[in-house]
Amino acid sequence: MKIRAAVLHEIGAPAPYALSRPLRVEELTLDPPGPGEVLVRIRAAGLCHSDLSVISGDRPRPVPMALGHEAAGEVEALGAGVGDLAVGDQVVMVFVPSCGHCMPCMEGRPALCEPGAASNGAGTLLSGERRLTGAGGAVHHHLGVSAFAEYAVVSRRSIVRIEEDLSHEEAALFGCAVITGVGAVVNTARVEPGSSVAVVGLGGVGLNCLLGARLVGARQVIAIDPIPAKRELASQLGADMVYDSEEADCVEVLREVTRGGVDYAFEMAGSVQAMDMAYRITRRGGTTVSAGLSHPARDFALKHISLVAEERTVKGSYLGGCVPARDIPRLIALYRQGRLPVDRLLSERVALDDINIAFDRLAAGATVRQIVLP
Fold this sequence. Notes:
Quinone Oxidoreductase, Chain A, domain 1; 2 domains; six-stranded parallel beta sheet; seven-stranded mixed beta sheet; Rossmann fold; alpha/beta
């Protein structure tokens, strides 16, 4: 079938993207789903910094590639062997397909699926196949999803069925921003009620981290970001204190007001500087968690003696350590109960043809979660 999709042909295009136009909306041929695959009509797709990192080159991927990984839609057709879904089912995309058989999957850590990581790096579906073709030949899949499009063929292992009483715009957030941010609190750090928490970086994932900290009963939540509008939104969402990360004495002030640092600090900005700040504002015996993705060539250095003598814990968190089939329905249920107001993070609705303009807004930090409506 013929579809329209946003395709990246070269990485590293200069901003503003409205002028350089790194993404071109093109007509592609989408093959039918193969064994274990599903054809999904994309109804809503969120713009995430992980998409922007591919455009900028901070997360190198093979090109040409149809971008987009955070989305919701409905099942249009089933490949051979898919018997637990039906046409019309509402689904949320997951950006790490899980084979179910490798060691991480068997340990209950599908975010670390080894075949899933390999296929994502190669720009294929979990099967190793590509179902997209453009004028110049095969087009790669972004994280097994390629959601900035009218339709997508994905592995059955890349989607979670949900109930139909959730709008597609709301549902899309649960495929990345919610599970990554809330999951870092609940699954990775296992924040205890009554703890103090700091979140460095208040994008879509960082604000979900803040919501997660409130959800589990943190007594003190501190939000840190250089953009005033994001600090204001964090206050509205329940942050007890907000700070400008670009203030020269930010770390010293935070350590003073927290009497030595917070119990848990989360880096959600995708930068080594943010990670350094998060580590420095963590108290002795505390835990620092990073869910941001910086350029693979950049290293994070810490003082070995502080790690040992202060009994620090440093953790990475990918996909929020979630088991998507378990956690997405749970988080949606909490949203319905009003305990996880992720809808307040929705900002602009964007037409597919305006996607480069939307990435300019994202790069400037002028928005939280924009939604593409193909």
